[in-house]
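Anyone have tokens for Pirin N-terminal domain-containing protein? Sequence:
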Amino acid sequence: MMPFIEPLRLSRTITRAVLSEEQAEGQGTRVRRSIGRPELQNCDPFLMLDEFLVDKNGGFPDHPHRGFETVTCMLQGQFRHEDFAGYSGVIGLGDVYTRTPTMFLDITMEPHKVVEQNLLFSYTGFICMLSGKTFLGEEEEQFVGEAHNTLTFSGSDGVKDTVLIETKEDAHSF
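Reply: yep, here.
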């Protein structure tokens, strides 16, 4: 009988940090697009990932959402949403709105915490930093992730990979 061998565990490293610059989109709406820009096009299964700020009377023009998933995480305030199928409602503070269940979505990490996040070896790993400053990787080789940056991870050659994520000061949103 062969002995059980623990799967190889590798710590992925940050390969790129891309700042999401703010731009106007819609009426009274500012968007920071991370995934979907030329620098970040291979983050399957995501086509795009936006952080948006909408003033009291602002919004987006009609646009279709056919053939892909949408996820909205409300970090501040509230937003009235209506789609082409006639579904409508208010997305409030702390709500996550999605058309279908999402496998994994971690939004907030409290201060002074360390998490070892497992990634399947075939996944393209990334973190979209919405706020705060996060320290990623082993202590001697930590990368500092800052707000409004999307960080991509190195590829995998192991069975199971991990990323160490640490917050040292304020709470952070991903």
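Residues 20-98 form a domain with the Jelly Rolls fold (CATH 2.60.120.10).
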